[in-house]
Prior knowledge:
This protein is α/β, with parallel strands linked by helices. The chain is 44% helix and 17% strand.
Amino acid sequence: MDYSTYLKKYPSEDGFFGKYGGAYLPPQLVPAMEEITQAYLTICHSSQFINELRRIRREFQGRPTPVYHCENLSRKLGNCQIYLKREDLNHSGAHKLNHCMGEGLLAKFMGKKRIIAETGAGQHGVALATAAAFFGLECTIYMGEVDIAKQAPNVARMKVLGANVVSVDKGAKTLKEAVDAAFEDYLQNYKETIYCIGSVVGPHPFPMMVRDFQYVVGEEAREQFKEMTGLFPDVITACVGGGSNSIGFFLPFINDPVEIVGVEPLGRGKTLGEHAASMSYGSEGVMHGFNSIMLKDANGEPAPVYSIASGLDYPSVGPEHAFLREIGRVKYEVASDLEAVNAFFKLSRYEGIIPALESSHAVAYAMKLAKEMGKGSILVNLSGRGDKDLDYVIEHYGYGENFKDF
């Protein structure tokens, strides 16, 4: 199938990827979203905006981030070669700054004084607090009480950067509830505020905007890998929660002879409430203003979810991911908590790179697939670094002494 015109076709004018996406909003927010849409469609074609964003990426973020060959890890696994796109080296430690700086620049263009967001693992919160400091904007971050306890280093970073971090103690006290709280704030304050959604989720235009800002990841990786090897990778893979790092990584390869795999969190097992693998075990439904695939309880409401990686414990997934699976271009697999932690320690021990637990899910899948393939190459988007996870991992798993060698 020819995907050369994919980006021009999707999303549609009203924000749909096939039947997924759209904007399911309370009436008072419709004008606000229309304002954001028109502002974005204006500046995304502005040479002034594009050049300023490129300057920020180069001089402030430290882009491009490199592609790295994991020679030691690959040797342990056999003859299949594993490569990493090093988004952990992006300023603030993850891919999140790619869209936060774009959203901050958009907020300045629109004359907004305040930006707000939700965060799970804290990387989006840190990135948005960084953008707010850069652009001189007020910043409020909503974060579940459970995630605040797990991600203390990132909470401290947000506060040092000047953000107001609001603890959310409703429901499961994790990412979904943080999104709920941020939407409540936005309903009250949309005239002076932009809600900078942290992934390719939410109502149109956010899945499109965040995708466009993250596209740079795959665009760089595609060029770098071909320069390094003269070939395309056989497989590319990335973790999928809401799906921002993965969608930006996947799309530049969409028309290439490359297998594309998203990796969801299986958590502690297949029982509802013990994982957050929406694509693997969910069904179609509307949540947080968009239609996609979501995990549901017996009443059809968003189900409780769990993952060791706070940035992946969301009961739905970006609508473009649902569409890409439906048309057969991307497949979605799972990795468990234990597989992710094992990959966390293996990458640390053999390559000197401590990955985020979110990214560790993709590394775990790549390790398993490399053994099965026996040859060829796999390119993994290492979406973030693991400094934020060290305290939690050491408390629950020690220093890796109980994980077997290869």
